[in-house]
Structures are given as structure tokens and as C-alpha cells.
Amino acid sequence: MFVHHVFFWLKSDNTPDEIKKFEASVSSLKSIKTVHMAEVGKPASTDRPVIDTTYSYSLLLVFNSLADHDAYQVDPVHLQFVADCSKLWERVLIYDSESL
To answer: Does domain 1-44+52-62+92-100 match CATH 3.40.1400.10?
Structure first.
């Protein structure tokens, strides 16, 4: 399995409509055929020193292989998401991992 975990810090001056646009657009990534599993979320209410809750949204995608991930990266739905929403975030951090 290949896990792609993306954290988004949205700009503080985004309008409610822009936030809705981001939520709909990021959720559209679940429809990409090479995505095995997908979850979109916001920081949980957990509170321990090792937990970072400063991000706005997270996207967790699981693929069956690196090749599936690579196909996702060039999928038109993903490219449209980046084109439409990149102006809404100030920071993105990605953690990729592969099963042992």
C-alpha cells in the first residue's frame, strides 16, 4: 500500500463560499479511480503536546501501489483541484509512506 497524507493550511481571509468550494473540490479527489481509500477531515479535538492541530484540513489517500499514486498525480480531477484551490491555501505539507 502507498499512503499519501496531505495537510492544508487555508488562508485566514477565505470567504465562506471559498471554504465550501475547497471542501467540495478536495472531496472530488475521492472519485479518482486509482484511489483505494480516501478521507477528508479537520483537526480532531485531541490535545497532547505531540499533536499538531494547526492545519485546516487533511486529506488521506491510500493507493494499492506507487504507480496508482503516480497516475493520481496527473489525473484531470487532481489537476483541476490544484488549479482551482491552490490560491486558497498558504501552506501544504505532504507525508507519503509505503507499507513494509
So the answer is: no
Q: Average model confidence (pLDDT) for the chain?
A: 97
User: Residues 11-46, buried b or exposed e (16+ Cβ, 10 A)?
Assistant: eeebeeeeeeebeebbeebeebebbeebebeeeeee
Q: Does the predicted model carry a pTM greater than 0.90?
A: yes
Grid cell 491552490 in the structure block, residue: 86
Q: What is the pLDDT of residues 75-92, one digit of tens each?
A: 999 999 999 999 999 999
Instruction: Residue 69: name the closest of 58, 81, 82, 78 by CA.
Output: 78
| pLDDT at residue 27, rounded to an integer | 98
The whole-number average pLDDT for the span 24-32 is 98
Helices (H) and strands (E) in the chain — how many of each? Answer: 3, 4
Q: By the 8 A CB rule, do 73 and 100 touch?
A: no
